[in-house]
């Protein structure tokens, strides 16, 4: 029997109920907790150079967690450097924020090789390796170099940018050659998959194979679109369970209307533009003053990367300015919280709101959008206002779709959402739920795992 070995930069927090801010942790956790398996990743610890790289095992329900520590140099070059200061902005079309260094790229490959060595030591030849996200694009190459012939797939949780954007990153050719050592590469949307194929066809002479396969660098790789979902029933059950925070929030609203936004504090999430759009809304629709309140939950993320420190400072200043401008003795327009919430507390908060405001400048999927929809009362649901540049917008077409750079457009959508009749809200919500039930988290996991194992009809197993 082959086992599933999941590999991601970070593994879930060991303590139950601790917040997991990030779509990947939420998705993988839900995907593994049903059937069990092995989950391998960084422990989150930084240790002296000599002590790094040794894998430790812990149990998390049916999941066997294996973690390794990193040295300061590994962390700086791989995680803080190439992954988060080069790849992340590039993959999110923020080329002006990307900083590149060949030494950090070498460090990224070194840590991918360190992971590969540890995984090679625990993998049997028939095991299937499923890697996640942009931290591990060179993992398959390193595992092949370590002598592993296992079937290996990568699912990219982020967007994949247009070729001209990727090519602003000087190591694009090396990175793409390495990435193509995976057997299956999965994307959130058809747009991401097309951009990937486009790069390989134009820049590496790839030929299209059967289905969504590509012949490139002397091998065949398969690609596919696997939109990640949420467990709709579970989110709704969590949203309905009694929760102290939601009760407090509801009481504090005193009948006023609530808009909710929940994001890691990341420049790709469009928070600055969102604050500006909310300000435009208060300017253009004076009747909303003293009534509509935006609750922005944004736990700090990657705080040791300069660009993240800057966006945090900017947002603090903007929140203060907007509140200073519009607040009244008994009403604060913007509640800005820099903290995480356990899922059991977060899901009921969504259910209190009349609007879910999700406006990333670019996002692979955006699970918050799906969680907001799943948490609503189907008989009296809130309205989702969603950026056209979130992967979720490819599926959630019954949301009010906005351009995150268009302040006036967002303000108009907020007014429309808050004034929407119950019948239309119910219809839109039912449409959204239908799509989300079809593209569930279980389906995402099962389709990717089956394609990777080559079990799906018509798929030729990779030799
Ligand atoms: P990303 O993966 O870029 O962070 P997603 O929207 O896809 O973005 O996923 C975010 C996940 O993290 C969601 O499951 C959400 O519930 C969770 N999350 C985001 N912010 C918080 C927070 N403040 N507290 C707890 N969980 C959060
Ligand atoms: O895809 C989003 C992501 O990078 C995930 O890999 C991760 O779970 C989340 O953001 C949080 O980021 P970090 O691990 O850098 O704190």
Draw up the topology in text:
Blueprint: E1 4-10, H1 23-35, E2 37-47, E3 56-60, E4 63-71, H2 72-91, H3 102-122, E5 128-132, H4 139-145, E6 151-155, H5 163-166, H6 172-179, E7 184-187, H7 190-204, E8 207-208, E9 213-216, E10 219-225, H8 232-240, H9 244-253, E11 258-262, H10 271-284, E12 293-297, H11 306-326, E13 334-337, H12 343-352, E14 355-358, H13 367-375, E15 383-387, E16 400-402, H14 407-419, H15 422-438, H16 441-453
Bound molecules: adenosine-5'-diphosphate and 6-O-phosphono-beta-D-fructofuranose (F6P).
Tell me about this structure.
The protein has 463 residues and is α/β, with parallel strands linked by helices. 44% of the residues lie in helices and 18% in strands. A hairpin with a 2-residue loop joins strand 9 and strand 10 (219-225). Helix 8 (232-240) crosses helix 13 (367-375). The two termini are 18 Å apart. Mean pLDDT is 93; it is low at 456-463. Adenosine-5'-diphosphate (ADP) binds at residues 19, 21-24, 26, 262, 264, 297, 299, 340-341, 346, 365-368, 371. 6-O-phosphono-beta-D-fructofuranose binds next to strand 1 and helix 1.
């Amino acid at each position: 029997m082959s086992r599933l070995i999941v590999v991601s930069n970070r593994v879930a927090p060991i303590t139950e109920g601790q917040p997991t801010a990030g779509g990947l942790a939420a998705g993988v956790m839900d995907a593994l907790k049903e059937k069990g398996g092995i989950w391998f990743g960084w422990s989150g610890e930084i240790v002296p150079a000599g002590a790094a790289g040794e894998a430790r095992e812990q149990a998390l329900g049916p999941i066997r967690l294996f973690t390794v520590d990193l040295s300061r140099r590994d962390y700086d070059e791989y995680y803080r450097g190439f992954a988060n200061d080069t790849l992340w902005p590039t993959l999110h079309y923020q080329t002006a924020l990307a900083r590149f260094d060949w030494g950090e790229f070498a460090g990224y490959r070194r840590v991918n090789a360190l992971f590969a060595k540890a995984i090679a030591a625990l993998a049997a030849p028939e095991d299937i390796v499923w890697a996640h996200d942009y931290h591990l694009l060179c993992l398959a190459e390193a595992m092949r170099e370590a002598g592993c012939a296992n079937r290996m797939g990568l699912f990219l949780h982020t967007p994949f940018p247009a070729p001209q954007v990727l090519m602003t990153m000087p190591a694009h050719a090396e990175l793409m050659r390495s990435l193509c050592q995976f057997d299956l590469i999965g994307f959130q949307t058809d747009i991401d998959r097309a951009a990937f194929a486009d790069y390989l066809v134009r820049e590496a002479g790839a030929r299209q194979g059967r289905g969504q396969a590509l012949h490139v660098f002397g091998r065949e790789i398969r690609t596919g679109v696997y939109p990640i979902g949420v467990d709709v029933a579970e989110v709704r059950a969590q949203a309905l369970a009694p929760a102290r925070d939601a009760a407090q929030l509801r009481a504090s609203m005193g009948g006023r209307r609530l808009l909710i936004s929940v994001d890691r504090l990341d420049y790709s999430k469009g928070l600055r533009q969102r604050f500006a759009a909310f300000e435009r809304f208060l300017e253009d629709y004076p009747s909303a003053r003293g009534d509509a309140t935006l609750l922005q939950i944004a736990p700090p993320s990657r705080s040791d990367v300069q660009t993240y420190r800057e966006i945090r400072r900017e947002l603090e200043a903007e929140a203060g300015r907007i509140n200073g401008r519009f607040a009244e003795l008994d009403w604060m327009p913007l509640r800005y919280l820099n903290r995480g919430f356990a899922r059991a507390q977060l899901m009921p908060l969504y259910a209190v709101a009349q609007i879910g405001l999700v406006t990333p400048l670019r996002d692979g999927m955006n699970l918050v959008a799906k969680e907001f929809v799943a948490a609503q009362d189907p008989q009296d649901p809130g309205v989702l206002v969603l950026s056209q540049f979130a992967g979720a917008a490819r599926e959630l077409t019954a949301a009010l779709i906005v351009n995150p750079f268009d302040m006036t457009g967002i303000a108009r959508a907020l007014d429309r959402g808050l004034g929407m009749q119950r019948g239309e809200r119910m219809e839109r919500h039912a449409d959204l739920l239908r799509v989300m039930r079809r593209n569930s988290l279980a389906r995402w996991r099962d389709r990717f795992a089956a394609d990777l194992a080559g079990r799906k009809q018509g798929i030729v197993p990779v030799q």
